[in-house]
Amino acid sequence: MKRRIAAVVILLLLGALVSGGWFYRRYLRLEHDDLAPNIHAVLGAGGNSVIVHGHGQTLLIDPKFPPGSAWLRRWMTGHGGPPTIIVDTHYHYDHTDGNPEYPNARIVAHRLVPDLMRQRDGAFWAQHPNAIPKTLIDDSGTIDVGGQQVALVHPPHAHTQGDLWALVRSGDKEIVATGDLVFHTFYPFFDLGPGGADVKGTITAVRGMTAAHPHAVFVPGHGPLATAEELNHYADYLTDLDRSVAKARRDGLSEDQAVKHIDLSRWHFSVLPSFHDRHLCWATAANNIRAVYRLQSGRGDAAHPPCSLWR
After folding, report:
1. What residues does 86 pair with on adjacent strands?
2. 172-205 pLDDT, tens per residue?
3. Is 35 a residue whose pLDDT tops 60?
4. Of 56, 159, 238, 269, which residue is the least packed, with the fewest Cβ within 10 Å?
5. Are 38 and 148 in contact (CB under 8 A)?
6. What is the pLDDT of residue 300?
7. Chain centre to alpha carbon of residue 228
8. 134-148 pLDDT, tens per residue?
9. What does the H/E/C string look like for the chain?
10. pLDDT tens for residues 231-280?
11. pLDDT tens digits, 65-118
12. How many CB atoms lie within 10 A of CB 225?
């Protein structure tokens, strides 16, 4: 745990050094949006969160990670109180390490998530066994939050093998919490380890969400609120990336040659730092190319992910 906290502090300091005020505004600062009566998005300071209040119950989707999870807990204290239910959209630490902040909450996730937590981040969860999800969803389900129905949907293998996205309706408004199926305005992180990413599956999941809910407000895993058009733009990027890497491989280019040959600058996405599998990883155009090259080559390896900021 101390190592995790130290790594996060280093990440934050490096991010502030590299990106200055932009990094603070886009990644560290906690911001909230009132999406509909009793439905809020709390953005930044880690993975984005969604809060739904019902009669006597509160749902929190993705409780962030320290120190952002503590900031979120304090915010919730003044805005309806702690959650009675938590949904983890997937197992990654930046969306789940806040679970222990709420020992009385019922924690919901896809059925694969508990094993992935133990397999990929066992030391942390061995210290917090009661914060591992106990209510498990198979393909889809609905949870009742004091009379407010929240639909949970599991796509096929996408950002991870255990993703969920959530749909909440308020009158004629739809709000979709995507988890890390979507990184809006940022280059995405690709998990190369067991239970990790599938690019084509992510494209299919994103286009499925937008087709089913074209007028929804989308709360991405990272980044500002988005529209269906913006999610389709993100899916277009993933499609371009996947096809460009596949062509480079067909042309016999090495990974290093593919990075030099493929130009993703027209997408104008921002760099995103994260800490996974004991590595400080930077989501950049070059690292996206390297990650997809390795996924297509069957060389996914969580122990040696493409992380460098400068290559």
Report:
1. 60, 107
2. 999 999 999 999 999 999 999 999 999 999 999 9
3. yes
4. 56
5. yes
6. 75
7. 17
8. 999 999 999 999 999
9. CHHHHHHHHHHHHHHHHHHCHHHHHHHHCCEEEEEECCEEEEECCCCCEEEEECCCCEEEECCCCCCHHHHHHHHHHCCCCCCCEEECCCCCHHHHCCHHHCCCCEEEEECCHHHHHHHHCHHHHHHCHHHCCCEEECCEEEEEECCEEEEEECCCCCCCCCCCEEEEEECCEEEEEEEEEEECCECCCCCCCCCCCCHHHHHHHHHHHHHHCCCCEEEEEECCCECHHHHHHHHHHHHHHHHHHHHHHHCCCCHHHHHHHCCCHHHCCECEEEEECCEEEEECHHHHHHHHHHHHHCCCCCCCCCCCCCC
10. 999 999 999 999 999 999 999 999 999 999 999 999 999 998 877 766 67
11. 999 999 999 999 999 999 999 999 999 999 999 999 999 999 999 999 999 999
12. 16
Please report, as a single letter, which amino acid is at residue 28: L
CA distance 10 to 23: 14
Per the CB < 8 A criterion, the answer to whether 263 and 226 are in contact is: no
Q: How many CA atoms lie within 13 A of 117 on its CB side?
A: 28
Give residue 274's pLDDT. 79
Strands 135-137 and 140-145, by their bridges, are unpaired
Token look-up 């300071």 returns 45
What are the tokens at 138?
């198979």
Inform me whether the pLDDT recorded for 131 exceeds 80.
yes
Residue 222 identity (one-letter amino acid) = H
For residue 114, give the nearest of 128, 101, 104 by alpha carbon: 128
User: Contact at 8 Å (CB) between 51 and 86?
Assistant: no
